[in-house]
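In the design runs reported in the main text, the only information available to the sequence generator was the tokenized backbone. The following block is the verbatim input for one such run; it is reproduced so that readers can re-run the procedure and compare outputs position by position.
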């Protein structure tokens, strides 16, 4: 269902939009968690380490795809906020072209440079073959993942965050079934886990195509809409490329940390992998509010409602502060039980390693949430330079802290690198947000308003 976020109570709209995103993200995390659980339980610690040691490499390409497609759909959401029907359809066409090219590039990079990249990450020799096989099959699924993220992004740009949730729930269940079938019955090892991801994401992408064809005429394009405009394509790339770079910087920093972590052996890799999965799913409420802020700010920026964006950010940060405390306490009290679910019985040392990470990082979740809110708000307004600078600062801090502290205090030093980077990144991106929002004075808002109403084409109906 199409939802106009330019009217109504901002916090209520953001929370209602974020709830389906939250549930969807949790199920998306189940993609990864089911991989880890099934691999760790059925194949053992060494296979778990192979998946964990190579996962940041795939995460890097995944984040590039996620950032790029999110940037493309920012333009779609802005056109929706401006009531520009022709602009929405043209945005869909240009986004499909850009996303298709990106899929080809990522797939070729993974196929051609996979083995050197794994060596660069210090993947231990005893798990290299499994890590290579796992990543090679995952690389073949990148096109399905890109298309799902793009199509679901189109749907969210029009204010519908529920429909992508339904597809993710279904595909997450299928992923668990496929993984268990391929690993337990077919005996494919870690390749079975990667194959489950491929088929699950393919089904999700096809489901989005079917739903758009049935329910979203605003997103349906005809031959008349398929007119390439270089200037309009550059408008998309000016947002999507910096967002892809910003997300890739985050992924590169994770690769650096994983590379340092890999040098401490299989037990540390396994404990760190399990703890990271727990943190990823625990912080999804904060991430979901950030995603909601992106669509909220994009629609309201297109409608020239700058004060409304300010109000939404203020209320979102307040909600995130409360959530950060609740999540932090939950992780601190139940972290060891969560980690033990990923590990075979009798590996208390690995469980202790994972618990150490969670005890350190849980103090700093509000800084992470501030990054999510400010970064997504700026990106929704098409202001991508500051999030890119913030991401670069995070990378520099995280990499330096991981390498230096690991030498000084051992693997525990790696666990401090993320929180320290969150503080630095939050200071930069939040400071940048306040500078940008203050410069959007009444004169500029009026220009945006007049530009909106000067559009030749207008939306006939929101239903």
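Verbatim output:
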């Amino acid at each position: 269902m199409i939802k106009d976020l330019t009217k109504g109570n901002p916090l209520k709209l953001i929370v209602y939009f974020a709830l389906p995103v939250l549930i969807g993200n949790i199920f998306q995390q189940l993609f990864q968690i089911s991989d880890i659980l099934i691999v760790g339980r059925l194949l053992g610690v060494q296979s778990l380490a192979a998946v964990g040691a190579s996962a940041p490499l795939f995460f890097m390409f995944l984040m590039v795809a996620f950032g790029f497609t999110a940037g493309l759909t920012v333009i779609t959401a802005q056109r929706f906020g401006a009531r520009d029907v022709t602009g929405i359809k043209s945005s869909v066409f240009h986004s499909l072209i850009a996303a298709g090219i990106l899929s080809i590039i990522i797939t070729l990079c993974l196929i051609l440079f996979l083995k050197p990249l794994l060596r660069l990450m210090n993947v231990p020799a005893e798990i290299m073959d499994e890590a290579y096989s796992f990543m090679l099959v995952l690389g073949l699924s990148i096109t399905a993942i890109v298309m799902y993220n793009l199509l679901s992004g189109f749907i969210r740009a029009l204010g519908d965050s529920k429909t992508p949730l339904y597809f993710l729930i279904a595909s997450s269940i299928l992923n668990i079934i496929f993984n268990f079938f391929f690993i337990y019955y077919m005996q494919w090892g870690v390749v079975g886990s990667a194959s489950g991801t491929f088929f699950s994401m393919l089904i999700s992408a096809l489901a989005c195509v079917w739903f758009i064809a049935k329910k979203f005429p605003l997103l349906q394009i005809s031959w008349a809409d398929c007119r390439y405009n270089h200037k309009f394509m550059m408008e998309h790339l000016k947002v999507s490329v910096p967002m892809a770079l910003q997300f890739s910087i985050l992924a590169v920093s994770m690769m650096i940390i994983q590379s340092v972590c890999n040098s401490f052996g299989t037990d540390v890799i396994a404990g760190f992998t399990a703890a990271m999965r727990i943190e990823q799913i625990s912080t999804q409420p904060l991430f979901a509010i950030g995603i909601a802020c992106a669509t909220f700010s994009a629609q309201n920026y297109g409608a020239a409602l700058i004060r409304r964006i300010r109000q939404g950010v203020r209320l979102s940060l307040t909600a995130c502060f409360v959530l950060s405390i609740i999540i932090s306490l939950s992780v601190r009290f139940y972290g060891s039980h969560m980690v033990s679910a990923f590990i075979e019985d009798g590996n208390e040392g690995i469980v202790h390693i994972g618990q150490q990470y969670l005890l350190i990082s849980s103090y700093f979740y509000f800084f992470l949430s501030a990054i999510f809110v400010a970064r997504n708000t700026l990106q929704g307004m098409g202001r991508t330079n500051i999030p890119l600078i913030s991401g670069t600062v995070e990378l520099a801090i995280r990499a330096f802290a991981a390498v230096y502290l690991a030498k000084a205090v051992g693997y525990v030093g790696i666990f401090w690198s993320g929180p320290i980077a969150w503080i630095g990144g939050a200071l930069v991106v939040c400071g940048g947000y306040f500078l940008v929002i203050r410069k959007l004075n009444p004169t500029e808002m009026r220009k945006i308003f007049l530009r909106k109403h000067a559009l030749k084409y207008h939306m006939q109906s929101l239903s």
